[in-house]
Design brief:
Oligomer: single chain
Shape: globular
Helix content: 10-25%
Strand content: 15-25%
Largest sheet: 5 strands, mixed
Radius of gyration: 19 Å
Length: 150
């Protein structure tokens, strides 16, 4: 059972104290403007794992600096869906990559679209990645112990 520090009505209106640098808004405006300078160039290539309950797509799109980012889009099989689907977007985080698509079947099996994102320059033995960090020295995804290289 979950425990909370405040009752629900107070949690709904709670705003923690925070310190924001003076250039916070201008930094994010320029960062987002720079990101918009690159076309998304999204591609969706169907991958056949021989599964009958899910459809899998190998997705590539332009991320920071136009670098290609990889992900898996896993959907319930076409016969099992009608209309738009809610989508769970999952970022693996430090040290992990998107791994193999058949490792991520839960959400699609429950009727959701599931987009599993690589994190640039991450991936290791426990969860391989396919997205290098082209700004990092060497440029490749790396192994255990290198959380923020590049």
């Amino acid at each position: 059972m979950a425990f909370f520090d405040l009752p629900l009505d107070q949690l709904k209106t709670y705003f923690p104290p925070r310190e924001e640098p003076a250039d916070f808004d201008s930094f994010w405006k320029s960062t987002l403007d720079e990101a918009r300078a690159y076309p998304l160039n999204a591609t969706f290539e169907k991958v056949d794992y021989g599964l009958i309950a899910q459809e899998t797509y190998d997705v590539t799109f332009a991320g920071f600096g136009g670098q290609p980012i990889k992900g898996w889009l896993i959907l319930p099989a076409k016969a099992q869906r009608t209309g738009k689907l809610p989508c769970v977007v999952e970022y693996i985080g430090y040290g992990g990559g998107r791994n193999f698509a058949f490792e991520w079947l839960l959400w699609a099996s429950a009727g959701y679209a599931h987009f599993v994102m690589d994190t640039r320059g991450q991936g290791s033995e426990w969860s391989p990645g396919d997205t290098p960090d082209l700004y990092a020295e060497g440029g490749n995804a790396h192994g255990d112990g290198n959380m923020t290289n590049g």
